[in-house]
Design a protein that fits this description.
There is one protein chain. The chain has 13 helices and 12 strands. It has 364 residues and is α/β, with parallel strands linked by helices. The chain has 3 domains: 64 residues, no CATH class; 239 residues, TIM Barrel; 39 residues, no CATH class. The strands form 2 sheets. The chain has a 9-stranded mixed β-sheet. The longest helix is centred in the C-terminal third of the chain and has 14 residues. The chain starts with 5 loop residues before the first helix and ends with a helix. The structure holds pyridoxal-5'-phosphate and iron/sulfur cluster. Iron/sulfur cluster binds next to loops.
């Protein structure tokens, strides 16, 4: 028998129905269990133990809410990843990089998830689709960046994961491999020395993790991130802006600072996608812009993530910023700084710009 790793035991002990939650928090299980029939629940005990009270940010992200069943407005599949999908479960939306889904399972089924309809239900990802994805990457020499996603790619055991990563690394035109995972946040015991020692054989590997609230940062999640960073893996964080959870500059600033303290560089702040069952988490776009305004200039430049909307209809991630440009013409640009003071930067002479371009053309 194969040795059971601690994280697989932890995963098996996750909470998957409402009865225990109802007992612990003196509430009713019916509503929770009703939602579970449509959208599965799984909460690792580690994450569950971070809940302080009903309705707190940890609870809202992990415990099903009846609101999920009341959302008739949003489409089931928001991002139309299928449209840019030349082979099943691979999305080739941008010229030089692809998204490859290698599992549809997650350590936790986040209530706000974009792939809510797909994760934890049917098995649409198989060894066959993964092999087809890798073949596609091999035969497209323009692909220099491969993003492993899911589900959560670290649901795949180390042995299988190494098979996938090593075959991608063997493709000479692939420069970097990225892994998107929520494990450091929801089940940090997954980040073992064995995993890190395996990953570091295939550098350059980048990991983007996913934290949404400062109360998710604990000694355990810090240890997991530091272990990955210690293996030479640059860490980023993707955060989703959510109503009643983190749509507040004070909370987000604290989160960004705590991320940096565990060597994670904030990467994206996402406007919530349109996904059926998640409408109750959506914020207005102004709220994200206010957050950005409150961060830029007031804290370390690299504590500031990029605020993006993943455009419905398959437009990809589009960045949004508070408007710092007051006036912009042939002669000058008038700017507003983070404190609202105005500054003017004169344009370079037209003739000079033209000459520089000619020089560049000769050089390249
Ligand atoms: C987000 C995403 C990527 C990666 O985008 P970056 O801006 O390079 O991080 C690639 N492909 C798809 C389909 C994506 O959604
Ligand atoms: S871990 Fe990621 S893919 Fe899985 S449910 Fe959470 S947000 Fe969705």
């Amino acid at each position: 028998m194969e040795h059971m790793e601690q994280w697989t035991i932890d995963l098996r002990n996750s909470i998957t129905n409402g009865d225990m939650i109802a007992r612990d928090f003196e509430t009713e299980a019916e509503g929770i269990n009703a939602v579970c029939k449509t959208y599965p629940m799984r909460i690792p005990r580690y994450y569950y133990n971070l809940i302080r009270e009903i309705g707190d940010p940890i609870w809202k992200q992990s415990v099903p809410s009846i609101n999920e069943l009341l959302d008739d407005d949003s489409p089931e599949y928001p991002l139309q990843e299928e449209e840019d999908s030349p082979v099943p479960r691979l999305t080739h939306r941008y010229p030089d990089r692809v998204l490859l889904l290698i599992t549809d399972r997650c350590p936790m089924y986040c209530r706000f998830c974009t792939r809510k309809r797909m994760v934890g239900r049917t098995s649409v990802i198989t060894e066959k689709t993964i092999a087809m994805g890798i073949d596609y990457i091999r035969s497209h020499t323009e692909i220099r960046d491969v993003l492993l996603s899911g589900g959560d790619p670290l649901m795949v055991n180390d042995r299988k994961l190494e098979l996938i990563i090593s075959s991608i690394r063997a493709i000479s035109h692939v420069e970097i491999i990225r892994i998107g995972t929520r494990f450091p946040c929801v089940l940090p015991s997954r980040i073992t020395d064995d995993l890190c020692n395996m990953l570091k054989k295939y550098h350059p590997i980048f990991v983007n993790t996913h934290f949404n609230h400062p109360s998710e940062i604990t000694p355990q999640s810090k240890e997991a991130c530091e272990r990955l960073a210690g293996a030479g893996i640059p860490l980023g964080c993707q955060t989703v802006l959510m109503k009643g959870i983190n749509d507040n500059p004070v909370i987000l600033k604290e989160l960004m600072h705590k991320l940096l303290m565990m060597r994670v560089r904030p990467y994206y702040l996402y406007q919530a996608d349109l996904t059926r069952g998640t409408n109750h988490f959506r914020t207005r776009v102004e709220s994200g812009l206010q957050v950005m305004q409150a961060l830029r200039g007031y804290t370390t430049g690299f504590a500031v993530p990029q605020f993006v909307i993943d455009a419905p209809g398959g437009g990809g991630k589009i960045p949004l910023m508070p408007d710092y440009v007051i006036k912009f013409d042939e002669r000058e640009i008038v700017l507003r700084n983070f404190e609202g003071k105005e500054f003017c930067y004169p344009q370079a002479d037209q003739q000079y710009v033209k000459d520089t371009r000619e020089i560049e053309l000769i050089n390249f």
